[in-house]
Every structure is written in C-alpha cells, then in structure tokens.
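Key result, reporting period 2: structure in, sequence out.
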C-alpha cells in the first residue's frame, strides 16, 4: 500500500502546484489589465483637457469669399482656354455649366 500512495501524493502535489501557479498567473494578468485600463483612462482625461484648452484658442473660421460674378468666371475660363489649359470641348462644357444650360 505504501507504493500506491506515492504516485497519488505526487499527482496531488503536481496538480495543486499547477493550480496555484495558474491562479497566480490569472491574478497578475488581472492586475496588469487593471493598471492598463487606469492608464488609458488617465491618458484620455489628459487628452480631453488638452483639447478643451486648445479649442477656445483656435481662431474663428474666416468668412467665405464672396462668389465670383459670372463675368469674372467667364473671363477666367476664357483665359484658361487661351492658355491651352482647356480644350474647345472643355471650354464649351464649362461655359454651358456656368450659364446653367
């Protein structure tokens, strides 16, 4: 009977040691996850504070430029056509779009 107890005792010791090691690993992993979550929360707070401090300092958006008159746009198209930047068909299409036809 003495021989039979040793393998059982050995199995119990190995199993118990593995169980405890697994629990310790899980506890350390949970601590690392918790620390990482806290660090991410702190970073988000700092980034939020920086954004809120920078937002009022931004200059107001500039007013949109007044739309060019139709004659200005037509003269720009004609200049582009004369310079060769627009082909005859592109010039005609842009002119038709400008006149709304």
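The corresponding designed sequence is given below.
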């Amino acid at each position: 009977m003495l021989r039979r107890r040793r393998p059982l005792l050995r199995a119990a010791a190995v199993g118990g040691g593995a169980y405890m090691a697994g629990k310790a690993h899980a506890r350390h992993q949970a601590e690392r996850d918790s620390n990482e979550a806290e660090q991410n929360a702190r970073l988000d707070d700092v980034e939020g504070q920086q954004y809120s401090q920078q937002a009022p300092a931004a200059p107001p958006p500039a007013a949109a430029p007044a739309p060019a008159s139709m004659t200005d746009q037509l003269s720009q198209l004609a200049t582009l056509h004369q310079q060769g930047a627009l082909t005859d068909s592109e010039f005609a299409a842009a002119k038709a779009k400008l006149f709304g036809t």
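The longest helix spans residues 2-57. The CA atoms of residues 6 and 12 lie 10 Å apart. This case is discussed further under Risks and Mitigation.
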